[in-house]
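Hi everyone,

Forwarding the result from last night's run.
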Amino acid sequence: MRSAGSRRVNRARSRGWTRYRMSRGRRRGRGIRLVGQAAGHLGLSQWRVAQVDPVGLSHIAQMLAWSHWGLVAFVLIQLLYRPHYGYWSSHFVAYLLFSLLLTALNGFFHYRILSKRAVSGHWVLALCVLDLAVLSASVAISTGFGHHFFHILYYPALAFFAAVVASFRLNLVLVTIVAATYLVLSLTVGERLDLETRDEKTLLARIFVMYLVVIVVNLLSELQRTRWRGSLVREQALLQERTQQSQDIHDTAAQSAFIVGLGIDRARTLNGDANPELAATLESTSEAARLLIWGLRRPINTGRMYEGQELNRALRSHVSSFRNITAVPAELTQIGEEPELSIESKSLLFAIAHNALTNALRHADASRLVITLEFGQNEIRLSVSDDGSGLPDDYASRGQGFANMSRDAERLGGRLVVEAKGRLGGATITCLIANPGPT
């Protein structure tokens, strides 16, 4: 057993170590706060990639990609037609490696553009920063200040950066870093700055042009972004106004159809079996009224409907309305846990389910429907099955229902599967899409 004295020594050491760690943590926290405050004063804590219209960003990305191909071609021509470099010399190998690196990255970047894949402003920003780093490295291994055109290549790289990054302060910080790097390289490597021949004026002019390019491009880009945001706000306000007017007309028509349906049902009750021909006419008219009411049940602006609501809840409410309006038994079954879905995904899946229910009501003469919403490990499966008369061979060419469902499934990156004879004996319409997240 340890003595009381040794235990006291150990406790003292433990307390000392604890105080040391707490002190170090406080110093680290103060350091982080100081860095954060400095970044805040410089405007770096709120820097962001500019919000530009997709067409404008695509145009910038294509210009950047093609300018890189032109630069790669120019460097390769310089290497082939400058024999004094010496093949496999240090300069030749360095320029060749830079060209291969730029070719690989720009090839991947251009492939994403040509294949219509997402190219965000961060891609453009990353390539611009890489360009500036490669240019500075090229200046370092070349003749430095005495090179005739390397400083010119800084200007387009800075211009692309200024066009993508909205923060004016961050642009000034970047151009200052680039200018300081170029200044140090001009004073330390290759054909250094010669003060006797007043080369400092040339150096200052080159640095001044760097600042001028960044400031002018950033201001013009911000002006263009302001105009675009203004037009976007006006378009959204106009669209919202039109949507609200359409929804009002839509709701009024639905209420009128419901009242007409009630009147027809009342007439059927009063007629009874007194006039069979009138009873048949009223029956078909009542069926048409139910179809009309159900068709008007789909909301026009489904985006607001899904804000903060799961797809399962929206579909369950819709299925309940279907039962109440049509008197056809329908149920919704969910398998698995619903992942986080975008509003667009929920809206399109809802539209597919609505069209499938409408198709079963109009054409299948179904007496029971089952909607299954299955969230699997890798895919989401939405299926609507009925026990009706199935589908004819030329179902795809009849109307626009199946064409709309197929188009919605393709917009989700999935596919629509139609079974003429499904698990309930009638048709089964299934939409399969990839699961965006784990269940």
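The first strand starts at residue 330 and ends at 335.

Cheers,
N.
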